[in-house]
Amino acid sequence: MQTAFLTTGKKMELTEEQNEAVFHREGPMLVLAGAGSGKTRVVTTRIVHLIQSGIKPSQIVGLTFTNKAAGEMKERIRKMLHLDVLISTFHSLGARILRESAEAFSMTPSFSIYDDEDQEKVIKECMKESGMLVAAGDMKTVRAFISRCKNSLTISEDEDPVHVDLFRRYQEKLKNYGAVDFDDLIYLPALLLREYPEVLAAYQARWSYFMIDEYQDTNHAQFELVKLLAGASENVFAVGDPDQSIYSWRGSTMRNIMQFERDFKNARVIRLEENFRSTQIILEAANSVIENNEERYEKRLWSRLGQGEKIAQFVGGDEREEASFVAGEIKSLSLQGVSYDEVGVLYRTNSQSRALEDELLLNSIPYTIIGGISFYQRKEVKDVLSFLKMAESDRDFLAFLRTVNLPKRGIGEASLAKIKEAFEAQQLGIIPFLKQIVSGSAALSLPKKQREGLVQYIQAIDGLREKRGGAIADLLSFAIHDTGYMQFLKGDEGFEDRQENLNELFAKGLEWDMKGGGTLTTFLEELALKPSSQEAEVGGKVRLMTLHNSKGLEFPAVFIVGVEEDLLPHVNSRGSQERLEEERRLFYVGMTRAKEKLLLCRCLFRSIWGQERTQRASRFIREIDPDKLVKAGKKERAPARAEIAEEDTGETLEGAYRVGDRVIHKDFGVGEIRDVQLGSLGIVYKVYFTQDRSLKSLVAKFAPLKKL
């Protein structure tokens, strides 16, 4: 049953379940929205309904995880009601709260937001100051520790004291630099609202209704922030799908959605199970896979879009043959009228893209990799934005370090280390402190040539600051040209590409000014909160991406490659039911990106870390009803080596022992399977026997091997 919902003269068709969610007014509600079930429509239409029923737009907050999703929701509401509502990412909301209440943390409201690269530089400084050797592995461990503490809002008593000390040093240094990191945008506001009841009361009086998209992706700090802001009314409308929870490595926890009814008393739960994206066969296959997970809410997706085609399954000899099949099928789809940007190729790990890229290039198929370096992470863009940070903040020492020798001014590492040490020991801003050095009134003394270089730098930054209240485009133009940066770049080999990127950045500034985007602070904040990887808005090209990066996207045709044990599910999930279930959810997410065609590809052999290994079909394929699958592959192509072996012997690798299995032989003793191949005599094992430390090749049908 569908219900019509009126908005400014237009009718929107809603299902009975969607309608129930939209017209929910007070108290907590959890909407279990399956993939492709129209959750964005539900959230936006509910906001419209609340406003039409008398709730002030200023009382409503919509929270999402991406700028793209927030933008889409804003635009839909604008079209319905011709007004704006506060819809932002969690981190944008946190930044807003932090800027409004910066004094509570003795911070300036114009704080900088550090990205991953900046964060690593600060951690490296802290590690050096504490006497630690800075190794890449240690850096990764420390970063993960800091992030985990902030996401959980706690530091456990049994944590490594060295890490705890580094956390303290790191936070102090950020404060000294007038900066926060990405996690701080949730961590600090949550602490603020916990510790200052009067501040919390003010926000609770301002905001009364909270709509949260992708609730399954929230971490503990985000949950606490919402719980605090919602207060006693608990007007939390959470939309999410536990079956699409795939970001535990990023700090998100399924606990929030699975325990929603415990966290918010008297919560109502609604299931949206009708899918408006995929055919029934695709959904039935996805249902049969995800139902093998134990930690989930029961639901089954269904569709009115017809049964559709069976899911194609291709088995190649190796990754080159797999990639060749994918390229050939894409060519065939193109001839049938499917445009390249209607095709998504998904894989578990980034390393799998190489063979695919080679074949796509060979076949002149245009492609783009989603998740590559973001425009705003490119060196020349970050350089210019660092100049703007110097115009805005007088404590951002990383911005100073990045820009002081652009162009080169002869200020070396040793001098910069002295400047840093002296700067951190006093309270002046960077430019006033540099002026003291130049005038000779500071305790620190530098050679004449370096002082002259600092004079030039001070003049450049002062010139920028004079334009601070004006147009963003003027600031960008000054930073690009008047500082000497563009002239400096002309010596670079890739100058034309860099120039094009800076022209694009300038165009962004013009667009910002034309839209009345706001101050330099808000401009820098928006760019800092852009995703660190490339988003999917690319036309005319096949899109390659990891399964994680496919979340939220859809394509008429989807290829999932490498559907093999120890790849999907990943080898890291071995021995952990929790990790295995997340791998299954990841596969489920990939399957439900497909609208009409879903092709699952795998290999019998794959090169991993430079070694060719035998691969087995993923257990996830075996969880699909065989009647939903059909074999794929051109009959006229030359048979692969694996197929020749299968035809000659009648054997396959499906029941074979796996690399790493421990076996025993009646004559040779205990050994370990090092390789598995199909030869003219069938399955052949290469086994390393510990008794005589030898590697032997044994034909399976003749070798008396038993698995230990």
Describe this entry's structure for a reader:
Mean pLDDT is 89; it is low at 4-11 and 635-651. The protein has 5 domains: 16-101 and 185-272, P-loop containing nucleotide triphosphate hydrolases (Rossmann fold, 3-Layer(aba) Sandwich), CATH 3.40.50.300; 112-177, Arc Repressor Mutant, subunit A; 290-372 and 536-631, P-loop containing nucleotide triphosphate hydrolases (Rossmann fold, 3-Layer(aba) Sandwich), CATH 3.40.50.300; 376-517, PCRA, domain 4; 661-707, Thrombin, subunit H, CATH 2.40.10. It has 708 residues and is of the alpha/beta class. The protein has a 7-stranded parallel sheet with strand order 15-16-14-17-18-13-21. The two termini are 58 Å apart.
Number of helices: 27
Low-confidence stretches: 4-11, 635-651
Structural category: alpha/beta
Distance between the termini: 58 Å
The CATH architecture of the largest domain is 3-Layer(aba) Sandwich
Using only CA atoms, what is the Rg? 29 Å
What is the average per-residue confidence, as pLDDT, rounded to a whole number? Answer: 89
Describe the global form.
globular
Please describe the biggest sheet, giving its number of strands, its sense, and whether it closes into a barrel: 7 strands, parallel
Regarding CATH, which class of the largest domain?
Answer: Alpha Beta
CATH H-level superfamily of the largest domain: P-loop containing nucleotide triphosphate hydrolases
- What is the count of distinct domains? 5
- Amount of helix: 40-55%
- What is the CATH topology assignment of the largest domain? Rossmann fold
